[in-house]
Design goal:
The chain has 124 residues and is an all-beta fold. Helices cover 0% and strands 49% of the residues.
Length: 124
């Protein structure tokens, strides 16, 4: 059974940090095309935050988080991370881990093959 399980969400104050983890079971991040993080605020659509491919050599970020968030991948632990620094209230929402099994983009919601259930981040 293939699963992506997120953890690490929580409540922090403005300027604080959190590290999200996405552990895969029944699937190897290293064998996929790419992995990414999306977020969704109440009443808004799901948006891409960061993606990683080529074994971690290539990363992409939304302009709103570039310079504050870092996506990384640990193949030994089969886990993708999102280090979030200098958090702002507008970063609040549910964060979802995503993976692409066949070639395509990890920045587009409709292209994603695997989704986690999400973890809540609240910045006040």
């Amino acid at each position: 059974h293939v699963q992506l399980v997120e953890s690490g969400g929580g409540s922090v104050q403005t300027g604080g940090s959190l590290r999200l983890s996405c552990e895969a079971s029944g699937y190897r991040h290293s064998s996929g095309v790419c992995a990414g993080w999306f977020r969704q605020a109440p009443g808004k659509g799901r948006e891409g935050v960061a993606s990683i491919r080529d074994g971690g050599a290539t990363t992409n970020y939304a302009s709103s988080v570039r310079g504050r968030f870092i996506i990384s991948q640990d193949n030994a632990k089969n886990t993708v991370y999102l280090q979030m620094n200098d958090l702002k209230p507008e970063d609040s929402g549910t964060y979802y881990c995503a993976a692409k099994v066949v070639e395509g983009s990890c920045s587009t919601v409709t292209a994603i093959d695997l989704w986690g259930r999400g973890t809540q981040v609240t910045v006040s």
